[in-house]
Amino acid sequence: MLLYSPFVLAATAALLGFSPVIAAPAKKFDGSLEPRSNCHYLPTDLQWPGLADWKQLNQSVNGKLILGKPLAQICHNSDNDLAKCAEIKNTWTEPLTYFTDPVNVMAPYWLNDSCSPFTSTNTTCDLGNIASYAINVSSADDVIAGLKFATENKVRITIKNTGHDYIGRSNGEGSLALWTHNLKDISFLNYTSTNYTGPAVKAGAGVQFYEAYEIAAENGLRVVGGFCPTVGIAGGYVQGGGHGPLGATYGLSADNALEFEVVTADGRHLIATPEENPDLYWALSGGGGGTYAVVISLTTKAHVDGIVAGGSFTINNTGDARYWSAIEAWQKHLLILDQIPGFTTVWGFTSDAFELEFATWPGGDASTMDEALASYKKEIEALNITFAAYETSDRPSFYDHYEHYTGSLPYGPYTTNDIIGGRLIPRSTVQNNATDLISIFKDIISTTGIPATSLRINGIAANVTHARVGNHVGSNAVLPAWRDSLYWLNVDVGIEAAASRETIHQIQAQVNAFQDQFKVLTPGGGSYMNEATFDNPTWKEDYYGANYDQLLEVKLSYDPNFVLYAHTSVGSDLMTMASDGRLCKD
């Protein structure tokens, strides 16, 4: 369903239906009227496509071209509507606000305070970093038309599905967005190939986990997906590896990918599998999103459903060394849980409390879950600490388990007003340097003087070694450091919904500093690119590792002209972002 009537950029407000001055990016004149020949055009350029060009594109996609506009435009100048502005303010940090919009993204850094509902009515409102237009994609033909138009007119292309994106891959100033959110087809099939025979699900790029999990359960199945229910199954999530509550049972999302339906930068509609276009399949399975091809659908393994054990607990801060001893003991206990096939945990702590948010163990039950946690419980008792809450459970299906521990479905409890960064923590670090790790934890949690609403360290522990997952080195392009990691750790800093650009940038810098502290203890390690920082100077090593050179070969093979670009994607360092926001090829 379209959010706005389809229309094209025009010179008159009557044709557009609202002021094009407000909707267009602010004018910038450092060479914009005579851009370099190797750069994309911006709306301020004389060479920007004219009205007739946009009309023709709109016709070629059957009226599905949408003019991008800031969500908070209704809060400013002549468009000001107090009631609607109040509604936007109230929903500003809800994912639903963004994943149903064709151009606006969730990350506060990339919205860049360009048009905020919390600033005064007469404050400048412009698109800033987000796309000027979007195509509401309903088929591969729409993508082909968009890519052709962008290539012929030197307009930047971006790909937006839900807009869950910390590192700026889904947005781009002056771009034409391919909005894949409404590709919602989902079907189940018996899949046969040389590598896998069994149940599978084919999901359009717009299918989200709250949809996939529920529909799979209705068919007696479960699929590998993420913790956040509103993330898309086939976009940057799987292309970046994709962790989730079933990780220790079936591996990362990329380990379960069977085939990708894609459109390449030159407009070819292809299938990528280990047998057909295997280099492209390999790159799409963990080698990063938004750069090799535009994904239309994903076919991934489905697994027979059944009983799932769960567990959670809370330990309040004791105000003394015992609190950190409890967290250190948990680090060591994770090495024990790591040996239990299928046992995944997500946990975290603040200055107030340490929580096991939920453990997932398919095939277990409440009693076996309690047994798995028993030795840790004894250590807590020895510290003279009482659990503020403790639960073990079992439920008949993964969806029932997920719904219980996530809550607030279909959209979940998650909000968009945070900044995040982190590091994969190898088993060897916990085995040999747990005390040093705890010292860093304490240092971060005790940080003061930053304008944050919350400061939390989270861990997601799942054994995704090749032996556990059942594949081998080279099966896909997942960062090799995942296979040696005990858990993925992130530092999550919450901010006010109305945080200023200066505050957002200050906290981003602080998160970078937090992230860097863990690098000292994890030499040769890496990070989960989907929850990392966009300005990490060692992004090639941290996000791609030894796979980078081979991934670049795939990029140059399928997109030698760099039609597709995303921050910290493979080959992105061969492009330059000019001071006026345009993208240029070096």
From TrEMBL:
Domain of life assignment: Eukaryota
Entry's Gene Ontology molecular function annotations: FAD binding; oxidoreductase activity
Coiled-coil residues: none
FAD-binding PCMH-type domain location: 127-305
Signal sequence coordinates: 1-23
Record-linked SUPFAM superfamilies: FAD-binding/transporter-associated domain-like
InterPro entries linked: BBE (IPR012951), FAD-bd_PCMH (IPR016166), FAD-bd_PCMH-like_sf (IPR036318), FAD-bd_PCMH_sub2 (IPR016169), FAD-linked_Oxidoreductases_BP (IPR050432), Oxid_FAD_bind_N (IPR006094)
This protein's UniProt keywords: Oxidoreductase, Signal
Family affiliation: Belongs to the oxygen-dependent FAD-linked oxidoreductase family.
Name of the protein this chain belongs to: Putative fad fmn-containing isoamyl alcohol oxidase protein
Taxon lineage: Eukaryota, Fungi, Dikarya, Ascomycota, Pezizomycotina
